[in-house]
Amino acid sequence: MNQKSFLMLGGATALSLIAAGAALFRGGNAPAFSEAGEPLFPGLGDASAEVARVEFREGDFTMTIESRDGVFVDAASGFPIDPEPLRDLVSGMTMATIAEAKTSDPARHADLQLADIGAEDGAGSEAILMDVEGDTLAHVIAGQRDFTLGGVTGGQYARHGDEDATWLVHARLDPPSSRAGWFDTRLMEVDAVELTGATLTTEDGSVITMSGEDGTLTIDPLLMTGRVPAENQLNRIVRFFETLDFADVRAGMASDSEAAGPALQASLEDGTTITLTQVSGSDGADETRWFRIDVSGNSGLSDELAATTAGFEFSMSSSDAEVFSWTLDDLTEETSS
Question: What residue range is the signal peptide (predicted)?
């Protein structure tokens, strides 16, 4: 991830991205006798400049996006979103055209997966666009896809959130239904050969130091009496830092809060040091673990990563988080007799 992607939805750029492919709909309801080929949301106007908040819901998943200082961010954490899913959602709505009118009977909404959010059966996905005052600019419920409808996008059932009328439209309205899908979750990429060392501080406070060379890690032989390195485990640590990804993000604790450990640190040949430390407030060993990322050094990578991660805490995939539970026994194995 880089700073450029963070700013793609900021200020005038945000408006050009959205307006170029997607002038946001507002106020226009599909007429009762719409002809095939007419837009689902006629008379949209140039409302993209007024959008300051987007609420999305599907099943138990909710996501609120809002503009802060010209950048669209996840309202819960303040972390910038990936602009592409939002752009796709808005442009998909804007370019949706009517194929045919369907039922206006609320009792049949579930058949098209257009029931209200929270319905026991057949609930759709919901997107609400609001202005800075919190007034609704647009409200749509999108239902099941219809792949028999021709065209580039195929078909989908949809209705305005405050109406019973439903439509089969040429559109694709399927934004991410998980938080990770709304972010660029790749924090950094480096070549394995750039890794010069790593240190794992275990949950009991033990420190395991590893040196790196030619893309591999080795453990100090003095730590391994009667044992040898477990190459598969050491390679997992290398891969962890080759492509550092996160699963979720939240606002960080106060700067003076202490980390709870354990921690994993990597040193790169350009002088960059990256340390991930488990923070207090993680939800138990078998639940989500949250990590603070501290970066030092004097390189483009360290500057970029520090700017990206400062003030936030990240969770990792379960396989990556498992590394922080390892001990020396996990990183070594008994010698063959």
Answer: 1-19
116: which residues sit within 8 A by CB, 6+ positions away?
Answer: 109, 123, 124, 141
Say yes or no: 266 and 165 in one domain.
Answer: no
Q: 182, 198, 221 — which closes off a domain?
A: 182
Q: Within this chain, do residues 190 and 318 fall inside the same structural domain, yes or no?
A: yes
Whole-number pLDDT of residue 9: 44
Question: What one-letter code names the amino acid at 61?
Answer: F
| Among candidate residues 136, 154, 182, the one where a domain is terminated | 182
Distance, CA of 135 to CA of 119 (rounded, Å): 25
Q: Tell me, yes or no, whether 132 and 242 share the same domain.
A: no
Tens digits of residue pLDDT in 9-48: 444 344 444 444 433 333 334 444 457 888 887 754 467 6
Domain that holds residue 51: 3-182
pLDDT tops 80 at residue 180: yes
Task: Give yes or no: residues 309 and 160 share one domain.
Answer: no
Q: For residue 323, what are the contacts with CB-CB under 8 A and spacing of at least 6?
A: 200, 236, 237, 240, 264
pLDDT tens, 121-143? 999 999 998 889 998 788 899 99
Higher pLDDT, 241 or 283: 241
